[in-house]
Amino acid sequence: MKVIEIDRSNSEEFKKFQQSLLAAQAVEYKKARKKQLESIIDKIVEGRRKYDDFRDAEEILNEELEKSATITDSNMLWPTFLTLQTVLPFKLKTLNYKDIYLNYTTELKCAVFSDLWNRGYYITEGVRFGGDFLVYFGDPICYHAVFIVKCVTDSESFSSSELVAHGRLGTSVRKRFVLASVVDGTVCYVTVSWIDA
């Protein structure tokens, strides 16, 4: 995945370009909104007739279109209608996503997150449970987390009391505590379980 970064050193050119995108998006959105309204205009006209509005359908359609098809700087999805023919008045630089994300995390966490995501799990931040990630079988709105994942390097070591604490924590919150690491380029997992004897 690559990210495009815009060089905004010439701010006047950039503002003109942004205004041209706003105008283009307004035109395109109005066309799309008109199609939506045309598909339900009969119901709208029927509803208006109940309130003694006997104007023709075209006039009502145009009124509804003006009310609901306004694009401004604050609600524009920038740049939705950028096409290959658009001439950019500024330079674009291509950045690798790792250049950005590694400012906030580590390669190990990126590798573990990517592996879990590719296996179909849902993932959220797990610091409040002593890990790096909380892992779910489905959407976190509908499911409870099943794993607390902590990313560890091969140079890290744990005392036996720390491992016991991780196992107890996982058991007390009804989750499995998992240690994740990368070994020979492959993400590996070890589950720490607490068993009452």
UniProtKB/TrEMBL annotation:
Q: Does the keyword tRNA processing apply?
A: yes
What's the EC number here?
Answer: 4.6.1.16
Give me the reactions it catalyses: pretRNA = a 3'-half-tRNA molecule with a 5'-OH end + a 5'-half-tRNA molecule with a 2',3'-cyclic phosphate end + an intron with a 2',3'-cyclic phosphate and a 5'-hydroxyl terminus
Could you name the Gene Ontology cellular component terms for this entry? nucleus
Q: Report which superkingdom the organism of origin falls in.
A: Eukaryota
The alphabetical list of record keywords is: Lyase, tRNA processing
Q: Which residues form the tRNA intron endonuclease catalytic domain?
A: 107-185
- Annotated Pfam families: tRNA_int_endo (PF01974)
Q: What class of enzyme is it?
A: lyase
Any one of the GO BP annotations: tRNA-type intron splice site recognition and cleavage
Q: Which GO molecular function annotations are given, in alphabetical order?
A: nucleic acid binding; tRNA-intron lyase activity
Note whether Cytoplasm occurs among the keywords: no
What protein family does this chain belong to? Belongs to the tRNA-intron endonuclease family.
The name this protein carries in UniProt is tRNA-intron lyase
Q: Which organism is it from?
A: Acanthoscelides obtectus
